[in-house]
């Protein structure tokens, strides 16, 4: 099992909620609110407020998750050689890369980034950042579900295909 899956499977349901459910619910809320804004062209309505609040929350929350996992998992695993292979590193790495789009949304929604952009340009950038998070989160999930032993020849033992 990758460290990513172990993180989600340990201390059920709390770690699953903290490390998977909250970030994914934020991303889905952002994606839906972006679609509402796109279809209604209402740049000042409820969907925009929900998007802004969620973007700020997600940026702060995921930055805290990033720092916590960097200190408690990534640095110790790297220092001790505890990684379980490339799939493990890819899963954890892509999960942590999610901090970039969420931090970007935080900076955009707080006005630190994009001050000279108009509302439509900010909306485009916000939507791109949501998309980036969804892509990196799905890459992390896919690689996190793989058996890390597949690349070392130890995986799929006992699996019968076509039987």
UniProtKB/TrEMBL annotation:
It comes from the Bacteria. InterPro entries: DUF6803. Keywords: Membrane, Transmembrane, Transmembrane helix. Pfam families: DUF6803. This is Permease. The chain crosses the membrane at residues 16-41, 53-77, 89-113, 125-146.
């Amino acid at each position: 099992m990758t460290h990513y899956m172990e993180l989600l499977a340990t201390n059920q349901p709390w770690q699953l909620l903290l490390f998977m459910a909250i970030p994914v619910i934020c991303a889905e809320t952002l994606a839906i609110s972006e679609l509402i804004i796109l279809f209604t062209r209402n740049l000042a309505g409820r969907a925009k407020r929900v998007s802004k609040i969620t973007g700020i929350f997600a940026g702060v929350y995921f930055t805290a998750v990033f720092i916590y996992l960097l200190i408690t998992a990534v640095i110790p695993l790297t220092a001790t050689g505890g990684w379980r292979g490339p799939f493990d590193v890819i899963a954890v790495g892509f999960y942590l890369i999610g901090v970039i789009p969420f931090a970007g949304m935080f900076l955009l929604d707080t006005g630190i980034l994009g001050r000279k952009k108009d509302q439509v340009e900010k909306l485009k950038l916000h939507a791109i950042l949501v998309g980036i998070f969804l892509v990196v989160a799905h890459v992390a999930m896919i690689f996190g579900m793989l058996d890390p032993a597949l690349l070392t020849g130890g995986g799929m033992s006992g699996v019968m295909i076509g039987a």
